[in-house]
Task: structure prediction
Amino acid sequence: MMSQIATNSTDDVLPAWLLKVQSAGREQFATVGLPTGKEEAWRFTKIQPILRTRFAPAEPADGSNLHGQYTFGNEAGVEIVFVNGHFSPELSKLGDLPVGVTVTTLADAASGPLAELAQQHFGSLINVKKHPFAAWNSAEANDGVFVHIRRSVTVEQPIHFLFISVGSGSPTVSHPRILAIAEENSEATFVESFVGEGGTYLTNAVSEYVVADDARIDHCKLQQEAIGAYHIAAMQVKIGKQTQFVSHAINIGAAISRNDLAVHLGGRGGYATLNGLVLVGGDQHCDNHTLLDHAAPDCPSHELYKHVLSGKASAVFKGQIHVHQIAQKTNAKQSSKALLLSDTADMNSMPALEIYADDVKCTHGCTVGPIDEDLIFYLRSRGVSYEAARHLLTYAFAADVTRRIRVEPVRRRVEDYMAAQHGLPQDIRINDLGAFDEAVTR
Amino acid sequence: MPILEVKNLHANIAGTDKQILKGVNLTMEKGQIHAIMGKNGSGKSTLCSVIAGRETYEVTEGDILFNGQSILEMSAEERAREGVFLAFQYPVEIPGVSTSYFLKAAVNAIRQHRGEPALDAVQFIKLVKEKQQMLGIKESFMNRAVNEGFSGGEKKRNEVFQLAVVNPLLGLLDETDSGLDIDALKVVAEGVNRLHQQDKERSWLVVTHYQRLLNYIVPDIVHVMIDGRIVKTGDKTLALKLEENGYDWVEKELAVTA
Result:
């Protein structure tokens, strides 16, 4: 597996702490390598096609076409763009940063005034021993994003990380990396977009979010990789006392995608929402592993993952909730729902609750099934066509998550995708659909 | 021409040999109110479902003519667009779809079928307000998900409201009275009566278990259904007799004639 690692020509300019993370990643990767698929954590993920492929490091390419399609334009406060894993200063929008906000490449952070902070946190959340792909990412980590938000600073417009991949004739790999630090009482919205076109490529991303007490962070991930691509991502979040962290993870693209999202609730009264939407068809496979690590008392967490599967698509949801002994009065609600639009689609839901405190409320539920024929008949009996009824019910099923997304350009993109995929009876938008059950999240 | 003619209708639960309707005959003239009474399991609700085109039943024999035209080959939505409306015994909840959106889709599908232009938002709201006023519905559930979290009475009222907005030629009321307290029953019945008075051409098939509803919606003709057949037909006094004496005497009469 060592052979997968590119020769790093920029070693000489990287600071010692970055090199340390790299070498730890290399060591781990060289010893353990990629998972075989037999490990418990990888048993349900279709990783064999990834293991069979030899990936060369992706070369810089022209991403302006995809950038044009996927930029947030004026709706992003900051947009930092990478093409094939290489920072693109031309496509990025880094001017006019609000006071107290730093967005740079990791390499620049290393030489800047925040080097000490970057050093302290880089690689501190992700455990490369538990995440073999993250070890590979760490081994290659020489470029990435560093974000810092100073205490009590509010960033009103989204900070957009746009990772563009342009596939070439032979399989390539890039290793996006994010480290974001939000200090006490700060407020910001982060969006990670992964988009691509062209031949087989692998995106192997790692992101770490260190969120201090009383901060309010909204996070969206929008995975719209090319349909033949592979996407592996590990995201680690650590939140403090009274912190609010809301995440929406949308998976639409890639032949195979696997997301590990873990939130460590380390301060009393911290609050985490993890919502997800998986919209896949054909032969696509999407696997979401989430962990809510309740390590402090009085923390609520809400989780709602919805899956719309058509064709021969398959999806996995593994939702771990770990309640430490100290985490009394934990209130965790988890729900996974899947709508199967064909007989050949396959859903695998696995709640995994580990509870070591005695005064807690933890609930989980999952449903898997086709569209309810009774609902279809009801709509048809009012004159709505069969196809329109199916589309409307599918749209409404997904909208339960979509409507909760507070980042306008993300919500719009998901809606547009749904409208295009599931042609709708009228020019419907989520607001037309009316009230929803508010029980699961706020 | 009758609005509805059901001729020797036989129907099974689809994919099984279980026969529910065993030769139903029924003729309704335009503007009439017919009631079908019968015990649980006699096939009353199945008849409504089959007329509305529910695919969980399979017609094995006979025919259904609507406005002189056989509708057996039509899908449920085509029948709805032609003017059949089924008010459900158990209206479903549709999470995530507002009544407003749903009804507008329905109304415009029907208008398109008739070659009429679609209603825009303003015209649609006007229509809705007009019907709400007519039915005396004050609160608006237009922006709530269809039937979600509604009480039994609210659901039934929503059915009648939808019926008023859609304005069909034939309204099938499938046990619309079941589970309603007397106040809710009156609201529903008055709604139907207003619609009936407003347009005498509209016809109604009221399926019920109890005579109570027929105090408020007065039928022209009452049918008794037993074991998948209509076995007796009379005027509104038949309903009173059934309420007082139950169905046993009808069954005995049948046994004698058989």
